[in-house]
Amino acid sequence: MKSTTIAAISTAQGEGGIGVIRISGEEAIVIADRVFKALSGKKLCELGGYRAAFGHIYKNNEMLDECVATVFRNPKSYTGEDVVELSCHGGMFITREALRAVLDAGASPAQAGEFTKRAFLNGKLDLTEAEAVIDIIKAKSKNAARAALYAKEGALWKKITDIKSTLVNTAAHLSAWADYPEEDIAEVTEDSLKEVFNNALTQLNRLLDTYDKGQIVKEGIDTVIAGKPNTGKSTLMNLLAGRNRSIVTDIPGTTRDIIEETVLVGDVILRLSDTAGIRETGDTVEKIGVDLAKNRLSNCGLVLAVFDGAKPLDENDIELINSLSDAEVIAIINKSDLKSELDEKYIKSKISRVVKISAKNGDGFDELEKMISQLAGTDSFNPGEGILANERQREAVLNAKTALENALNAVNFGMTLDAVEVDLENAIESILELTGERVSDVVVDNVFHNFCVGK
Ligand code: GDP
């Protein structure tokens, strides 16, 4: 059965130098030949793979734009099918019209992520590599982009494949030994099984350990800027965000709602909220803000607790210090450009990370940046080690781990090798789900659902 030939605009919607319409499928080259005419007069079907031609794209026999057509021949293409990429000028109208012409010529519109899904279904990528494609596109920091690129190049796949091969070999050995006792097959000892299971468990645990750090690198840290009114929280937020975002005034209590912003500090993504100052207040609207702020303190990953260095500590500062819970905290003593009046020793006795800055002129910002990178672990992050990138992958590894622990228990309790084999098969099953070698259509659809059209 012939698969449909799909097409979509693969570049971002908007104005740009180039816009690319990608066509993939058995008819890709024939369809492209219906809309594209090379200046050389050659048809695209006469070209080999990795060849390009310059010419024009036509819609209803009318010249639409200049165009470079690049031909990729199955299987040496992104999707593993015949692919043509038509690069025209990058304008909303031109790219849409060009796509329209391709669809009129016989292609079907591609669904979100359908090119990458075809690459996965054609064996060009495993599921972890396909997931990395979307992570590359969505990366907001250098480390996030590097981790995704390594995953796309197979860093995680390789790690999983090593574990998988050992388990598959053990399962094969186990069933051969149990099923063909008359054959001269080496005995499977309890000790050898325990060693294999323990080694695999160590590796799975190591992988699970990468998840939290990977999430911090990829998604960033939920960060709350807290402090009593007028300490300079909004000014700090603006310094971090690099523009005038919060309302900065001399009147205490002007930041009433929680203002959110995602910023890059060094190479750490911070999802910032500048909350209302924590203090006793009779104003109902402000009180809602204060309650929200307190709630955020206990549910975030990092608190930037801001103190006014030019004023002595008061009960509001003490209340803030006392409301800090399990989250990581950096105490920021602000207004270092003014004469110091604050009891810094007290703050240092309560909070281990303390930095002095002037949010107004940026002094001390480098030290704050360094402290945040250390805390996020990005300075020691190794993107090449193979990192679990999302909840689906983590779940599969957790399932494999549980199955292997059951297998180990079965050996330890002297249960029959049949019972061990069942658990071992379950562990292998979970690992095959992770790579996508044995995975339901629902899961696959879910993975590609997050993609953009054209990728
Ligand atoms: P918030 O209520 O905590 O959000 O405080 P704001 O950011 O609105 O700042 C309150 C006042 O302190 C404003 O007049 C700021 O210009 C001033 N301010 C903030 N940071 C500094 C600083 O580092 N040095 C000095 N001298 N003034 C600052």
Q: Could you say which structural class the secondary elements and strand pairing correspond to? A: alpha/beta
> Helix fraction?
40-55%
Q: How many individual β-strands?
A: 13
Q: Strand arrangement, largest sheet?
A: 3-4-5-6-2-1-7
How would you name the oligomeric state of the polypeptide chains in this document? single chain
Main sheet makeup: 7 strands, mixed
User: How many individual helices?
Assistant: 15
What is the CATH superfamily label of the largest domain? P-loop containing nucleotide triphosphate hydrolases
Q: What is the second-level CATH architecture of the largest domain?
A: 3-Layer(aba) Sandwich
Q: Uncertain regions: pLDDT < 50 for 5+ in a row?
A: 244-249
> Globular, elongated, flat, extended or rod-shaped: what is the shape?
flat
Along the chain, the helix and strand elements come as EEHEEEEHEHHHHHEHEEHEHEHEHHHH
Instruction: List each distinct ligand once.
Output: guanosine-5'-diphosphate
Strand content: 15-25%
Which fold name is given in CATH as the topology of the largest domain?
Answer: Rossmann fold
Q: How far apart are the termini?
A: 24 Å
Q: Briefly, what CATH class of the largest domain?
A: Alpha Beta
The total number of structural domains is: 3
**Averaged pLDDT, please?**
89
C-alpha-based Rg, rounded = 29 Å
